[in-house]
């Protein structure tokens, strides 16, 4: 039965319907999201609904309806006035995932407009916005008008879901973060795509992570998520592709906001960890091809390489940071970013090869040190986190440093040390680190 304008939304009935595994109509989903925005649906009801979806899932049609209803909960930006192709990248979330911070300026330096809307930390994973805010003065809360103006002037803006872009997702995301309802394919699909469809892009490249530090633990689940994202995105008229990438170890050597920002800025200087550079170039090549700026992967990689080597990517990042109120000198000299003052180094208890660097444990360890939030209203400690000194395959002698922990609260170090010790495994056999790139899903 369809609902008339003044009919009440029977929220308990809708929650029960999903709880019992029944399909919801497009109208029911839209009224739930509209009600969430106008106060007729409370946070606790929306959390219960998210839990029902977590257990019962959603059909493709329901996921499309949820995505479009969340997109339409705010403004949909029209970037039609910009002639250059507009392409964004989004990761489903990992540990030490600071790719966006180096990728966006490199791709923008190649002539693609990059309207990048990112999130905060979610569950055990960090968020690009929290990392960027480690740069003194950097503002992620641009209005839609400022966002548009910066894209026109600079060709790239790194913003949060402020203004009026997919506000339903912003609120639901915060609830999911603290109610154990993150790892759901329809909820992740609608969350990511609602905000991406609102930001005015032509094409989107997704980094779908798989493994212990990802929300999708198995390759099968990650492929299903990638296909769901690509199908829903294409149905909404965008060019969407996904790279399936490994998340069984943190990316690079750092976890935490300032630490990861420093590492990402190092990539713009032509250095930085090899796996971070590899991921950045693989995703960047996919973006340049989606934009039509490069025909082949090899050509795209050449363009990206030049942008780093001749300093245009670094200058682009300075422009972005300056335009968003941040201190651009940090881009030139990343070590100016402050790290938390209380520190502890975890050392190898015996000789051996590093056989495991557990990203989930380390993600939670960093969260506990203050790098993430335990409650939605918490502030993050920008200087908190973990610097790894080793990665899988490295040899460590007894007493050598494996990781250094940082926190502004000394009392938080002890639990972090215990978790970090359990996250780092040593063994007799030398293992090869896994390749980050697993597959590309383009249909
Ligand atoms: N990233 C998002 O934007 N949303 C999710 O639900 C998970 C990762």
Protein model, in words:
The chain is α/β, with parallel strands linked by helices and 443 residues long. It is 45% helix and 15% strand. The chain has a four-stranded mixed sheet with strand order 1-4-5-13, sandwiched between helices. Strands 6-9-11-7 form a four-stranded antiparallel sheet, sandwiched between helices. Strands 10-8-12 form a three-stranded antiparallel sheet. It folds into three domains: 11-57, Transferase, Pyrimidine Nucleoside Phosphorylase, Chain A, domain 3 (Up-down Bundle); 87-334, Pyrimidine Nucleoside Phosphorylase, Chain A, domain 2; 338-427, Alpha-Beta Complex (Aldehyde Oxidoreductase, domain 3), CATH 3.90.1170.30. The mean pLDDT is 95. The site of uracil has 10 residues, from helix 9.
**Count of alpha and pi helical runs:** 17
Q: Separation of termini?
A: 35 Å
Q: Tell me the strand order in the biggest sheet.
A: 1-4-5-13
CATH level-four homologous superfamily name of the largest domain = Nucleoside phosphorylase/phosphoribosyltransferase catalytic domain
| CATH architectural arrangement of the largest domain | 3-Layer(aba) Sandwich
**Average residue-wise pLDDT:** 95
- Cα-based radius of gyration, to the nearest Å: 21 Å
CATH-defined topology of the largest domain: Pyrimidine Nucleoside Phosphorylase, Chain A, domain 2
* Total number of domains: 3
User: Stretches where pLDDT falls below 50 for ≥5 residues?
Assistant: none
* Number of β-strand runs: 13
**Ligand kinds:** uracil
The first-level CATH class of the largest domain is given as Alpha Beta
Assembly state of the chains shown: single chain
The secondary-structure element order is: HHHHEHEHHEHHEHEEHHHHHEEHEEEHEE
Helix proportion range: 40-55%
- Classify the beta-strand content into a percent band: 5-15%
Described by the principal axes of the CA atoms, the overall outline is: globular
Label the structural class. Answer: alpha/beta
Largest sheet: 4 strands, mixed
